[in-house]
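Researcher: First entry.
Model:
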Amino acid sequence: MCSMVKSIDAVRRRLLEMHLKAGVGHLGGNLSCIDALVTLYQSILGESDRFILSKGHAAGALYAALWSVGRLTDEDLNSFHAEGTALPGHPPAFGLEDVVFATGSLGHGLPLAVGLALAMRLRNSGGRVFCLTSDGEWQEGSMWEALAFASHHRLANLCILVDANRLQGFGRVSEVSSLEPLSPHFSPFRVKAVTIDGHQPLQIEAAIRDLADDCPTVLILNTVKGKGIPRLEDRLESHYLPLREDELGPADPPERRHA
């Protein structure tokens, strides 16, 4: 596999190419979290760390981030969503070393991440667990139960990232079951909650490098669903509509290493 680290712009374009070729939706929620995933894989995750994609419908962004660090090839990505693929629309149960758990049913990824973080601490593995959730996913009671457990056990090796793009499958989060503003909901728990711009890699990296040392950390990422595609930005349709060929745009400039 190629070991060259790709720029975030190149990764975003590759994500668009994958979705265009496959003709599938869920692009909006992939574009809102791609900056965070690329930052994690290029700048943060160590050998002992683990990542869980709780919002499993953003699997395309995960695969593109893995491609950006040489853990998947172009040939792999070309099979996205194809029959018999190892890269389905949600992270698979088997076949990818970097996928710890199959996810897609919302509200399940964080409980799994909490259990894994506790197990890693009990084993003194030294690793950390990063879990990316959606904001609408916090309407699930299982999320708050998991957070209470993580808070009680002071799992400082757990970092929860919330892709707060304010849209979900049936409308705006504020209209379906309002959690806005999201940050105050974390106040009753013993966690460090920080709100940052989810499209600024340097902010994301700085926040992750400043995790709490005595409790879990929650990073609320202010993002835009469908970021970068005018027809899809901040629109419910971006949850479902596939990309049009005329929206792909010209090729990006030559690769540059992501700082």
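Researcher: Second entry.
Model:
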Amino acid sequence: MNDLIVIGGSAGAIEALLALVPALPDDVVTPIAIALHLGANQRNLVPELLRKVTRRTVVEAEDKQLIEPRFIYVAPPNYHLLVERTGTLALSVDDVVNFSRPSIDVLFESAADAYRTRCTGVLLSGANEDGARGLQRIADAGGRAYVQAPASACQPTMPDAGLRRLGPRARVFPIPELAQALGPSATFSYREDRP
């Protein structure tokens, strides 16, 4: 398996993604899996919106789908998205976690277990604490943990929760710098001052 980027967010995260994805460097070929809090019966417009801003292949994730370079996989509404050690995705209708299905924690924890040091987690804007525990699991497994700078987030609760759990192990970036940090030749020159 190669590397994997997993991204989670809630309120304000679609806007963040629409800025982040087109700003990714061209040399980022790493596949990306995304879990956003969407209503159970809500039509998933995220793949369609992302296709308008990137040349990467953007799809709604399917069960047992192979994870491929330059693909972006978006969790469907009312399904947990998991990463398997076989390099495939899985969908689950298990109970909601943090009042959500898909749950960011479920995606992040499964990705950490499957990809270990080859996993990068990104926690974006959101109004609850889903994703913080999963981001910690990624860091504990030796992966990279990134958080959208709370001051740049529409809803800072989610990135703040990630920062409380990880402290200095979390790299904090506003969106433009976050996109560059996901590149293979990234340097870490930005660190938001925290009170």
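Model: Note on the second entry: The first strand starts at residue 4 and ends at 9.
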